[in-house]
Amino acid sequence: MTLNARIYSFIMWGLTNPRVLSPSSTLRQMIRIGVEALPMASLVALSVGFILAMQSSTELGKLGANAFIPDLVSLSLLRELGPLLIAIIVVGHPAPPSASLVPAPASPTDPTDNPDASLTPAPAAAPNPS
Predict the structure, then answer these.
(1) Euclidean distance between CA atoms 24 and 45, whole angstroms
(2) Which domain holds residue 50?
(3) Number of structural domains, the chain?
(4) What is the value of pTM for the model shown?
(5) Nearest CA to 86 among 49, 34, 29?
């Protein structure tokens, strides 16, 4: 089965099972990925645009083509670098602790369950007052 067929079958399975792909959780995830990553994506695009303009202005200035710098920066960010940078930001965006798929380890209540318990010395016995 090809990758496209697997993706299509998963989407169709999710649409027919509302517990799996509910509209509310899908919308919540879209907002989390899109809206919460917007400030960082804007900052990265702005800084890369400045760097690209500064680097290209020296070479294009030698050729007398300074008028093409805004076109160069806007087209290169929109077509080439923009999707790559945004994908990196979205993938690296940290999830809140409640959204983690891995449960947090339970703290041991029994001292014998603690693997580090054998490394700590036992407390000294209190002297007998009698």
Answers:
(1) 30
(2) 37-94
(3) 2
(4) 0.47
(5) 34
User: What's at 2, amino acid-wise?
Assistant: T
- Please state, rounded to an integer, the average pLDDT across all residues of the chain: 74
Flag whether pLDDT at 17 surpasses 60: yes
| Per-position DSSP letters for 2-56, written without gaps between them | -HHHHHHHHHHHHHH-TTTS-HHHHHHHHHHHHTTTHHHHHHHHHHHHHHHHHHH
The number of residues making up the chain comes to 130
| Residue 6 lies inside a defined structural domain of this protein | yes
Task: State both tokens at 39.
Answer: 């400030």
Tell me the mean pLDDT in the region 1-9. Answer: 87
Specify whether 49 is located in the same domain as 23.
no
pLDDT band of 114, cuts 50, 70, 90: low
Tell me, yes or no, whether 79 lies in a domain.
yes
C-alpha closest to that of 49 among 37, 39, 57, 38: 57
How far apart are alpha carbons 45 and 79 in whole angstroms?
A: 12
CB 70, CB 56: distance < 8 Å: no
